[in-house]
Amino acid sequence: MHKWILIWALAALLGACSSPIKLNEVDVEDKSGQAAAAAAASGGMKSVAPAMASGTADKKSSVAGLDMTKDGKGGSSSASGKSAGSAGSAGSAGSAGSGSISVGAAMGAGTSGGAGNTVKALGATDAGRTIYFGFDSFVVRPEYKSILEESARAAKAGKIQRIVIEGHTDERGGREYNLALGQKRADAVRNELSLLGVDDSKIESVSFGKEKPAEIGEGESAMEKNRRAEIVIR
Amino acid sequence: MGLWRLKDGDNKGMKKFFLAMMAALIGANASAQFRVEVSGAGLTQFPIAVTPFKGNDGMTQRMANIVLADLERSGQFRSVDAGGIPMDENVRPEWPVWRKQGADALVTGSISRVGEDRYEVRFRLWDAVRNQDLGGLSQVAPASELRHVAHRVSDWVYEKLTGEKGVFSTRIAYVTKSASLFNLWVADSDGEGAQSALSSAEPIISPAWAPNGNQLAYVSFESRKPVVYVHEIDTGKRRLVSNFKGSNSAPAWSPDGKTLALTLSREGGSQLFLLDANASGQDPKRLATSTSIDTEPVFTSDGQTIYFVSDRGGSPQIYKIPVSGGNAQLVTGSGNYNISPSVSPDGRWLAYISRVAGAYKLYLQDLSSGQAQALTDTVADESPSFAPNGRMIIYATQQQGRETLMSITVDGRVKARLAGRIGDLREPAWGPSVSP
């Protein structure tokens, strides 16, 4: 029995290998697409996580695929027959728990989301300009002046409705405290834009703390790329 | 197998054989299934044996294992091997065997099917020092709730032997990150039996239990900014309670469940506000005003004081402030990075995370003396949350590069890694004790 499964698996593997050209093409296409998006997003600066370079702003429509089926154990506790043994399914969206909600969101550029989840990717040209910060720093360095001025010009010319500044931190420290630190970075950029004459009501500064790193990793170079504020024009 | 029927038997020879068998099995069946770590010498723990429940064989949930793991995790009990032979609640134990084994107490029990997906669980606690029956309980439940029943058995035994309320039948919430998917889970206090409350492609952080035990407030990034929801667990319905301009985060419930304290950046910076938890479209009330970061509010159990984190003194420290506002008072004494406060329900202890030489450790401060000490030797601890009886703390840490959940006793002596879903486990919050 096992032998047959093995043979079948081997055959499947070989089958997959026998079409390397096709697989390769898909791969390259994906990569170049992302690279283009990232390059456009950062304006030739350090690369921006493609994940942050897109997304939808529509709060309401981002909730999709509600599964509110109760499992009929009226009012009783959480104790359930499901044990950790079924952990293998944890990766699937909307695993049927009682009162479980699936939120299809919004920020995975390139990936088209799960079934029923609306992912609306913004065009690469709308993507954020990124300002990087030093360790424990919340000061916008002079080198970012041109990015700020360009954004301010666009806002004042009425070409854009809204600017959202998204602050981020590196991975060290607590989640909530980092959220506050990221907010401090976003607020710093917001102040700069205000000084350049952008109407305050057009700017919203928010924070992702350490939750959305541009680059995964513990090295200093990853952390440098994560201490940032992204200017997203909507 | 026939041996098990000896429970009612009076055949002396067979009984001796039974005892011999049991003695042989004892020791062979080491309790390797528990992930409990005990550190430090001189720890006095109550030795207890839990036999397999009769009729439990072949079922998914092993009552004895669940009860024993609960009791061990509490740090106050030491498991004595019961030898693997089921004993029901009506068999009077052979006292000499148990004493020889070193058990001061013994739990025996049974499960019987009493209807379509209905099981009756019975158990009895025995005092093996005084040779006494300490009583027991019986409860009928569907198969899906047998784990919960086992936790109730643990609670009953714990309370009988320690005089304090057990917390094993409470629930915890935590978040997993697996591939690019975030899930908010509600699980038993041992991490098992998790049910997904929310599944999202965007991060979820800071779940906080309402005192009624049926609602969670949390921060979700699904709308491309942090906003706060209140989520009803039984129905799965949720309400967006805080979506003000800027960031909305760090929700905490008042003990009466009427008020949420949270951090808003609507007026610039991260500042503390109070919000009616049940109304919508209201104006949040500012709790404190500073030009620095104020965040991570938590209420004391009398509802009078809020502990929070602020960097007003130059580095993040924990302060307290009357819920009516007023002057903030510094609580943490040493270190230049102290965050994520959790106050024990009796107001005696403050658990928090302190960064010392680049390592983030769980600390415990005695609030009357101000003395603080590290409870762990790990380097990436996060998010402590007290059990409702104040005896244990649940927190997140990293082991072998993965985020995991741990429980630890307040004396730091007994630690256990909680079971859970695959992926990175984080943001634990221990739910309240709710009367059945």
Strand and helix layout:
The complex is a heterodimer of chains A (234) and B (436).
Chain A: H1 2-17, H2 20-42, E1 101-103, E2 129-132, H3 145-156, E3 163-168, H4 175-195, E4 203-209, H5 220-226, E5 228-233
Parallel strand pairs in A: 3-4
Antiparallel strand pairs in A: 2-5, 3-5
Helix pairs in contact in A: 3-4
Chain B: H1 12-25, E1 36-38, E2 46-50, H2 63-73, E3 77-79, H3 95-101, E4 105-115, E5 118-127, E6 132-141, H4 146-162, E7 171-178, E8 181-188, E9 195-200, E10 204-209, E11 215-220, E12 227-232, E13 238-242, E14 248-253, E15 259-264, E16 271-276, E17 285-286, E18 294-299, E19 305-310, E20 317-322, E21 329-330, E22 338-343, E23 349-356, E24 359-366, E25 372-374, E26 382-386, E27 392-399, E28 402-409, E29 414-417, E30 424-430
Parallel strand pairs in B: 2-3, 2-4
Antiparallel strand pairs in B: 1-29, 4-5, 5-6, 7-8, 7-30, 8-9, 10-11, 11-12, 12-13, 14-15, 15-16, 16-17, 18-19, 19-20, 20-21, 22-23, 23-24, 24-25, 26-27, 27-28, 28-29
Helix pairs in contact in B: 2-4
Commentary on this structure:
The complex is a heterodimer of chains A (234) and B (436). Chain A is α+β, with helices and mostly antiparallel strands and 234 residues long. Chain A is 34% helix and 11% strand. The longest helix of chain A is centred in the N-terminal third of the chain and has 23 residues, at 20-42. Residues 9-98 and 105-127 of chain A have low confidence and may be disordered. With 436 residues, chain B is mainly beta. Chain B contains four helices and 30 strands. Chain B has helices at 12-25, 63-73, 95-101, 146-162, and strands at 36-38, 46-50, 77-79, 105-115, 118-127, 132-141, 171-178, 181-188, 195-200, 204-209, 215-220, 227-232, 238-242, 248-253, 259-264, 271-276, 285-286, 294-299, 305-310, 317-322, 329-330, 338-343, 349-356, 359-366, 372-374, 382-386, 392-399, 402-409, 414-417, 424-430. In chain B, the strands form seven sheets. Chain B has a five-stranded antiparallel β-sheet with strand order 1-29-28-27-26, covered by helices on one side. A five-stranded mixed β-sheet of chain B has the order 3-2-4-5-6, with helices on one face. A four-stranded antiparallel β-sheet of chain B has the order 9-8-7-30, with no helix packed on it. In chain B, β18 (294-299) and β19 form a beta hairpin. At the A-B interface, β1, α4 and β4 of A face α4, β7, β8, β9 and β12 of B. β1 (101-103) of chain A pairs parallel with β9 of chain B, so a sheet runs across the interface.
